[in-house]
Design goal:
Elements: E1 3-10, E2 13-20, H1 22-39, H2 52-83, E3 92-93, E4 109-116, E5 132-136, H3 140-153, E6 156-159, E7 168-177, E8 189-195, H4 201-204, E9 215-219, H5 220-223, H6 226-235, H7 243-246, E10 249-261, H8 267-273, H9 282-316, H10 323-332, H11 340-366, H12 373-388, H13 398-408, H14 411-433, E11 437-441, H15 443-456
Parallel strand pairs: 5-11
Antiparallel strand pairs: 1-2, 2-4, 3-4, 6-10, 7-8, 7-10, 9-10
Helix pairs in contact: 1-2, 3-9, 9-14, 12-13, 12-14
């Protein structure tokens, strides 16, 4: 009969020893060997008539190893479940134990395993956490800007022969070149559409009177101010954090000239944007636009508050880890074993992720957070509506339901949706416990604050 013993070898790090007697594995091995003998097809012998000695010689070592290891696994898993031992990953076997196996001399064997124990810990008191809810004030300028954006978005584009004003929309090809306009082999190329006024003030005049086929050669630094240059560089697939990107020259070839006619502010336009909302006047339209801007910034503020919540939980949940075990486990992951240097480089990020996983599990278990199938279906529909722009889509249409049911059979999608919904519920649970102080802030300052935080954590 198998016996199992346990000894501590480090912080949250134990060794499990499984001792097998011959009687634990030998009967199943002999049965497997006979079964193999009945089914084996070996040239020169009739099926089922192969001598037992030949079967044992040919297949015995691998069958013997399989049966011994299956028995060890069965005993170990049963013990872990009975003892309710909460461990990380899987037990790690001592590799040298396999060397003792000999099909021609069956013995009592002892196998050893490392296990890493999950820590016990307490969550911080979130009600006492110092957090801030940023409140972005919506200004008249912001409303003006959004109204203009909507007028342009729904306006009509008219083709023109030549560039006549800074408001012209020009379609261009960016071809990386030298300062003289000679194309660089393997250089960046991108089609783009932009307003003339996106160029620096002293370069806009260079476009006046230009027709399709005309071109200018400029460095990105002289062509665009910092804000526009940043998204142009990103759009090119270049690294916006690399100063050398701004110094690159491009030949910018004109492929089309247009002028955007802004949509007129009238009831027809208001009803197009807000059907059934009884928006009749410019004042009511601006009020609706303001609501949407406020909703957007409130959502951004909630995201930022969730980020504070994440750090409160991560930084103030004190827990130990079986570091020696985890390093050993991490080293063996992947197709090729990691070096000690690679393990050390990955370890801080790995333990941070592990810590958040344990915190999430604790919150989910203690608060009975569950995800129902209809929530995953709702997630699938919302994702579809987001892809389709949401215009005039009803969730009871047959093709929508067909799409949803198809996604419910996609295991990867269901797992991803489950995780995302669960994470959202964890943050909603935590945010309800926080007592943040409201702080008014300008949109630009808030955006800068978020960007600086993201940069700091990358």
């Amino acid at each position: 009969m198998a016996t199992i013993s346990r000894s501590n070898i480090g912080k949250l790090h134990d060794k499990i020893s499984v001792k097998l007697e011959k009687t634990d594995y030998l009967p199943t091995f002999e049965k497997a060997l006979k079964e193999y003998g009945r089914k084996a097809n070996i040239p020169g012998f009739r099926k089922g008539m192969v001598p037992a000695g030949l079967i044992k010689k040919m297949y015995g070592p691998s069958l013997f190893t399989d049966e011994v290891l299956k028995t060890v696994d069965r005993e170990l898993i049963g013990w872990l479940q009975t003892e309710k031992v909460d461990i990380f990953a899987q037990p790690l076997p001592f590799e040298t134990d396999l060397q003792q196996l000999d099909v021609n001399n069956p013995l009592d064997y002892t196998f050893h395993f490392d296990i890493g124990l999950k820590p016990t810990f307490n969550l911080p008191d979130l009600a006492k956490a110092k957090t801030t809810r940023y409140v972005v004030a919506v200004t008249e300028d912001m409303i003006d800007s959004e109204v203009t954006r909507l007028q342009n978005r729904y306006g009509n584009m008219k083709d023109q022969e030549t560039v006549e004003s800074e408001e012209n929309v020009i379609n261009v090809n960016f071809t990386e070149s030298d300062a003289q306009g000679n194309p660089i082999e393997g250089g960046a190329f991108k089609e783009n559409s932009l307003l003339v006024k996106y160029f620096t003030e002293n370069k806009r005049s260079g476009w006046m009177g230009k027709k399709v086929g005309d071109q200018l050669t400029l460095s990105l630094k002289e062509a665009f101010e910092a804000k526009e240059r940043e998204w142009i560089i990103s759009d090119m697939g270049l690294d916006k954090s690399d100063p050398a990107a701004a110094e690159k020259y491009f030949t910018i070839s004109l492929t089309k000239v247009g002028l955007l006619g802004k949509k007129e502010l009238n009831e027809e336009f208001f009803d197009q944007l807000y059907p059934g909302k009884e928006v009749k006047t410019i004042e009511a339209f601006r009020s609706k636009v303001k609501e949407e801007i406020e909703t957007y910034w409130a959502g951004q503020a909630t995201n930022q508050l969730h980020d504070q919540l994440y750090h409160q939980l991560l930084d103030n949940s004190k827990m130990d880890f079986p570091e020696n075990f985890l390093r050993k486990w991490l080293k063996k992951q992947g197709e090729t074993p990691k070096t000690d240097q690679e393990v050390e480089a990955d370890f801080p990020k790995f333990t941070n992720q592990l810590k958040w996983t344990l915190i999430s599990e604790k919150i989910v278990n203690e608060n009975n957070i569950q995800i129902k199938p209809e929530e995953i279906r709702g997630f699938a529909k919302n994702q579809l509506f987001s892809y389709m722009g949401g215009a005039g889509l009803a969730d009871n249409q047959s093709w929508v339901n067909d799409y949803t049911e198809r996604m419910m059979k996609d295991r990867k999608f269901v797992e991803d949706a489950y995780h995302r919904i669960q994470t959202q519920k964890i943050f909603e649970w935590g945010a309800a416990l926080l007592k943040p102080a409201d702080m008014p802030i300008e949109a630009e300052s808030f955006t800068k604050l978020v960007e600086e935080h993201q940069h700091h954590h990358h």
